[in-house]
Amino acid sequence: MFEEALKLINKITDNGFKAYIVGGFVRDYLLGLESNDIDVTTNATPKELMDIFKDSVEPKTDYGSLTVIYHGIRFEITTFRKDIGYVNNRRPDRVEYIDSLYDDLIRRDFTVNSLCIDNNGEVVDLLSARGDLDNKIIRCIGDPVTRFSEDALRILRAIRFATILNFDLDKNTIKGIKECKGLLKNISYYRKKEELDKIFTSKNVSRGIDLLLKYGLDKELEIDNLNKVKETNSLIGIWSVLNVSSKYPFTKSEKELIKNINIVLDKNNLDPGTLYKYGLYVNSVAGEMKGIDITKITESYNNLIIKNRKELDIDSKTIIEVINKKAGPYINDIFNDLENLVLYRRIKNNREELIKHIKNKYGGANEE
Ligand code: ATP
Ligand code: MG
Predict the structure, then answer these.
(1) 147 in ligand 1 pocket by Cβ < 6 Å?
(2) CA 13 to chain centre
(3) Span 311-362: which CATH code?
(4) Equal fold, 1-135 vs 137-222
(5) Is the pLDDT of residue 368 over 50?
(6) What is the pLDDT of residues 53-90, one digit of tens each?
(7) Which residue among 106, 185, 198, 345 has the highest number of C-beta atoms inside a 10 angstrom radius?
């Protein structure tokens, strides 16, 4: 990836512009971590970049930044810029293209995100960030209160980087977070969820949760029960416990899952009826949140006599024949009854036994 990135920035510098790898890739590269995409900063404008990369440019341009797929790798190329007039504590009103790398770097969020690599592969450290990277510190560039007031999402980005990288937050940055946390209410739930998703899917999630609780960000984020979240690999499990579905954006199927997980959180996850109705996944997620051994849940699920209605040794056609009545809602009632009896081992899942039960209880047609 590094070689391709160097090729890309050399392609820009060969056209007479300045270009540097910046941000997450440099930070992670120096920490020996993998990155998914690469941020590049340059004094070439998006228009000039489109001429250089022609076919490989993705159509959408956004705030003077351009996505280029080059040698199969995704590059976010941003023109050196100054942010002017922040609105609603989030995103600048407009950006002005500039020619100075230094001025572009000081508008960025944290020192560790300001490190660059030039077209020779050399690290460029204009803001003396290397010390913070080596000492594992997340520190705002400039005055934290100013920077968090410009864009309150940076508060969550700080927590996210401290979580994922297992870094400490600088003292002054912490002061800024405490002072500005009220501004999080101005940030869209979509943006907040994006950052929280990254925190909650981190292997180091417990540290992220500790930090959110420690600085009282849970209240500002309108999140309940954060202290009840158990270590888990399930993002949807965490969101279910947090009880926020009406404010934060979830898809229809996520909402359905959250609803079911919440129902099952109040039930016994080893109960055959609960396992049968809500399935292994929902029960495992809820069980994990309650600290129940997942192998026990899986075992109980695997021991269910039937996993779905089709596994009953009788079909609706047979039920209709036995009852000798036109099809109707009664069929579903009988199925429910049979499922329960079989799941709790009151009768065997055997065609003759099931028919016998139907005849006894519902008065079936006489045998011919
Ligand atoms: P990752 O890609 O691993 O999530 P990143 O640091 O690359 O982390 P991006 O969101 O890709 O984060 O942003 C790229 C760079 O742009 C950052 O490293 C930072 O320098 C700058 N940046 C991003 N968001 C902000 C922001 N809200 N305020 C100031 N600078 C920002
Ligand atoms: Mg990035």
Answers:
(1) no
(2) 36
(3) 1.10.246.80
(4) no
(5) no
(6) 987 777 665 666 889 998 889 999 999 998 877 777 77
(7) 198
